[in-house]
From TrEMBL:
UniProt KW Transcription regulation keyword: no
Keyword flag Secreted: yes
Protein's organism: Mastacembelus armatus (zig-zag eel)
Domain Fibrillar collagen NC1: 1-113
Name of this chain's protein: Fibrillar collagen NC1 domain-containing protein
Keyword annotations of the record: Collagen, Secreted
GO CC terms in record: collagen trimer; extracellular region
Transmembrane segments: none
Localization: Secreted
InterPro entries linked: Fib_collagen_C
GO molecular function, one term: extracellular matrix structural constituent
């Protein structure tokens, strides 16, 4: 991975968060991003939904914005010119601990270019 990081000008990766009764990005009730997922990059940097623009991920699809008992999915993309931030090595759901919550992950390979 270190060699790929050193030889790359940019990289990107997608995370698909499958959810049931868990907010992954924007909470439909409060219309804020306080419950948004936090990702940890390869270099230990936290990647968030808001904050410093270079450490901010984008959301392609947000189907995890309400707790309605149905399964949904949120697709997150992180693009960077600092290739040492990828791959994503950890993920922290913030809206966790309530009864009847479930989630799963699909993590795409990193594309170094």
């Amino acid at each position: 991975i270190k060699l790929l990081q050193l030889l790359s000008k940019e990289s990107h990766q997608n995370i698909t968060f499958h959810c049931r009764n868990i907010v992954a990005y924007k909470d439909e009730k409060s219309s804020n991003l306080k419950a948004a997922l936090v990702l940890r990059g390869f270099n230990g940097q936290e990647l968030r939904a808001q904050g410093i623009s270079r450490l901010r991920y984008t959301v392609i699809e947000d189907g995890c914005s309400k707790s309605n008992g149905e399964w949904g999915k949120t697709v997150i993309e992180y693009r960077t010119q600092t290739s040492t931030r990828l791959p994503v090595v950890d993920l922290a759901p913030m809206d966790i601990g309530k009864p009847d919550q479930e989630f799963g992950l699909d993590i795409s390979p990193v594309c170094f270019s």
